[in-house]
Amino acid sequence: MGTPTETAKQAYSAFAARNIPALLEMLAEDVDWRFMASPETGTPYGGAFKGRQQVGGFFAKLAETIEIVEFEPREFFEGPNHVTTIGRVKARLLPDGKVHDTDWLQLFVLDSNAKISRWFGTEDSAAKLDK
Fold it and tell me: Which of 51, 83, 92, 97 is placed for a possible disulfide with 4 were both Cys, Cβ 3.0 to 4.6 Å?
C-alpha cells in the first residue's frame, strides 16, 4: 500500500494515459465521486456519482464534452488517509472549440484497503464562460 499522494499520482497517470479501466480499478466498489459544478456553469459532467459504474459514466461524459490539452497536478497536501491536489488544466470545449485554462482542486480519500473511497473535484468554471 502506497501513500495517498502515490495513489493520486497513479490515478493521474492512468488518466493521462486514457486508461480509465485502470483508474476505475483503483476505486472502492461504492466510491462517492463528486465534481462540484453543473451544466449551467459549462460543466455537463458535474454532479455526484456512486460506485464504479457511475464514475465510468462521469469519464465518458468528460470525454464527450472536453478535449484536454494540458493537465498538470502541481501541489500535493497529504494527511493520514487523504491527499488534496492543486493543479491546472487547459482544455478545449466540445463541440464549439473554445479553450479555457483554469486551476482545479481535488481531494482523494482512501479506505483501509488503499482504494479511493471518496473523491471531490472543482475548478474555476467561470473560465469556461468568459471566453
Answer: 83
